[in-house]
Every structure is written in C-alpha cells, then in structure tokens.
C-alpha cells in the first residue's frame, strides 16, 4: 500500500503534534500503525511538513535524524504524546509526564543542536505548546484520537480535521441509524 504525507496528516496544528500523530490509532493495539517505523517515512515527513505543516514558516527546512539518533526522536515523540494526551484527558496537571517531556526535549536539543534538524524543531515546538493559552486549546480528536490545537473562535472543535474525521463520524452515525431502522 502506498502512503502519502497529505495535508490531513498535518492536522495537529503544531509540528510536535504532527510528530505525535505519526502513530495512527494509538489507542487500538490491533489497528495501531507507526508511520515512522520506516526510516524513509521520517525523511518524507520532514520534507512534507515544510510544505504542509502549520509551523512551516517557523521551521522552513527540516532534516530527518541519522539512523543512530532516530531513537531520540521517537522517545521525544512518545513523551509529547504521553504528556499532552494525559494532561488533556485529566484536564489539568501531570507533573510526572511533564518531567519526562522536559527531559526528552533536553535530550533532543543536545542530540540535535542544529535548528533545521527535525528533532530540534520538534522539541522547540513541544515547548511552545506549554504556554497556557495554547495548552488550553489542545484537544484529542473524537474520531481518530489524534492530538490537535483548536484555534476556532468559540473553542468548540472536536475533530482534528472536519473534512476527514467529522465526515467519517457523520457517515458512521448515518449507517448505524439506518441499520437500527431496518432491525
Ligand atoms: Zn481525527
């Protein structure tokens, strides 16, 4: 199956969240898929994020990590997902997760000192998300479970991407209603 880093895959609204969202259906072990499992996909992600990512002006050129440094990026990714997901879900503090995130950011900044490296940029992006006004806008998509920033005026977004997850959920509700009506 061919895979492309389309605009939808950059629905997170921040580089750090798009990196976290490179694991598809994280909560379902039977369907979960790590798009970074193939190193060439990390290269393709880095390139695509400079065209499609919400922070493309801030990070206009990104290079993927070398093989030996890939684990540092993946650990940072897990720390980003772990902290923001748990703090959104609990609606508040997760100091243990925050400590892990800050540690992973520190490791990434030391391992990737160049600003154009994906690991460096992802750490900076993650640290920006800690600002209170951004932190309050972080959400978990009601359909796919991706993390995203709700930049809507009334802060009422529930889908990472209305055109994909919003429609899919609507179609599924329609299907279930029809099925109920038949039985
Ligand atoms: Zn979604």
UniProtKB/TrEMBL annotation:
InterPro entries: ABATE, ABATE_dom_sf, Znf_CGNR. This is Zinc finger CGNR domain-containing protein. Residues 137-178 form the Zinc finger CGNR domain. It comes from the Bacteria.
